[in-house]
Amino acid sequence: MLKRLISCAAMLGLITAASLAPTEAISDDRVIVFGDSLSDNGNLSALTGGAKPGPNYVGGRFSNGPVWVEQLFGPMGQPYVTGNTAGNVNLAFGGARTDTVVAFPPGIPAQISVFQGLGGTFDVDDIVTIWGGANNIFQFLDPTTNTTIPVTAASIAANSIGAAAANIASITRIAQAGAGTILVPNLPNLGAAPAFNTAVTKAQAAFLASSVYNQAQATGVRQLAAAVPGVNIIQMDVNAAFNVIQANPTAFGFTNVTQACLASPTCAAGTLAQQNKFLFYDGVHPTQAGHALVAKYAGLLLNTSGAQASMAPLAETALWANAQATNSIMDRMQGFISSQYSQRNGLHADILGAIGSQDARGLPASLTPAYDYNLYGLRGGFDRKFGTSLYGVSATILRGNLSSSNLKADTTNFQADIYGSWSFGKMFVNADVGAGFTHIAN
Prior knowledge:
The protein has 13 helices and twelve strands.
């Protein structure tokens, strides 16, 4: 199976386009979940008799609704409670670390051991998610849990590197045990979370900690992907996704991305829809709506047909725009050869444009969807005749938009060309060299 390391950048526009649509569950393969409170579907609550996370949370989750793995994969069993490892299972625990420093809640290595101890095995068709690291950082930065190590830039970095190394060891263990696909999210910028963003020193420390962790984990995953053949390890850049969400909250349906819903009496007592206008439910955990965006991002990474279907119209539109510019230049040179423009060299301009629809051309919509498009713009340039030859430069700009079943986008296409035409009796040669740039905005 081909190893994939897919960056967030190609997915952010698709997340925006899908943000108002329900999350579609992925159910083709078995799912096994390891991690902390970001993935816990009620394990810690069940084993503490509901004491944690407490009454302000919904269904034992550290949020106001289902967490991302439930929204993406659907309901899943809890082997800690039932002892059953069949079907989709979730062994994540709120408060879990990536190591075994704390016995309870069980860290990710202990979660894997419990799964295997109950007879659970990993298969090539399994999807395994493993998301951790935040609690290692929280406990290091908290003076009530770290009373021995001075918190300095160097010690923060060392702690984060150690946390990442422990997680890489667990990922390695899962890969070597036969898992086919492993999804590895990184950490968002913890300094931007409500628990840290109100004080500069706290925000800086948390930012450094999560940044170092992400870098160390990414390096370790890349090395592991190269060393263990046949395992599909997918890195999910939650950090980049949350940066975009927090920079453009209204595009994702949020009105508040800096404060905790539970810290606002109006939000805490509000309806689910009102609560989901906040990105954070408490100081560090997303609301159900925040989890939904994580689920959509993960779904795009795990099921790339949707991304392919969205990218096809964008690529075709960009190629069409460049072809329009080139064809216009070729038409001008052909006119020169036929003497149509023999007395007209110098400045010239053309209006370009098109509007229409493109069907799936008999192919599956998952590969080539139908879409509508319109493009309009201007080509201008300058050329000069020298004997029987013509030399010129041209610039073209085309703007427009397109829409398909799962994407709407505005496009701006720019192309610059250098061209020439040479006549040799009844023979002629036309040549064009150009470079283009396409900007796509959602």
